[in-house]
Automatic annotation (TrEMBL):
Alphabetical list of Gene3D superfamilies matching this protein: 1.20.120.1080
GO molecular function, one term: 3'-5' DNA helicase activity
GO biological process: positive regulation of transcription by RNA polymerase II; regulation of mRNA processing
Gene Ontology cellular component annotations, sorted alphabetically: nucleolus; ribonucleoprotein complex
Keyword presence, Lyase: no
Organism of origin: Ridgeia piscesae (Tubeworm)
Keyword Nucleotide-binding listed: yes
Protein name: Uncharacterized protein
Record key words, sorted: ATP-binding, Helicase, Hydrolase, Nucleotide-binding
Length: 139
């Protein structure tokens, strides 16, 4: 796989627990700059971006949530996608590159013999208890 071994291991564990889609998203995002458009006030995420992590206080969970919301917005067309990114202060080109990299990782793993069921997108409860999200953030 064209990523660091520890990220590959993370994705394989995700496949075992049927959250490969989320972990492919997180792994793919590590190769690009963060999609969060900064307010220029240091490295920490802005309050709206931090809220995306819910009660987990994790940049990776915030990124996963933002990515899933962006995918939903993208289904409504390019104008809807652009409006979503503008209102949420997200970089559309970065999200698109992350999506391409995620799909490449998924295709590599499916071609290597991992079942496609491992990569079914799941919805998570970001603001309350969710054992699958806990597993994703702990991997």
């Amino acid at each position: 796989m064209p990523i660091e071994p520890r990220l590959g291991k993370m994705i394989i564990y995700g496949c075992i627990f049927f959250c490969g889609d989320a972990l492919c998203t997180i792994a793919a995002s590590t190769t690009f700059p963060e999609p969060f458009v900064s307010n220029g006030m240091g490295r920490s995420l802005s309050w709206p971006h931090r809220r995306l992590a819910g009660c987990r206080h994790s940049d990776h969970v915030a990124l996963l949530h933002a990515f899933q919301l962006w995918e939903d917005a993208r289904m409504g067309g390019e104008q809807n996608e652009s409006y979503f990114c503008e209102t949420k202060s997200l970089s559309m080109p970065t999200l698109r590159m992350t999506s391409e990299a995620k799909n490449q990782l998924r295709d590599i793993l499916v071609n290597a013999g991992f079942p496609e069921e491992c990569f079914v997108a799941q919805s998570f409860n970001y603001s309350g208890p969710d054992s699958k999200l806990d597993m994703v953030s702990g991997t």
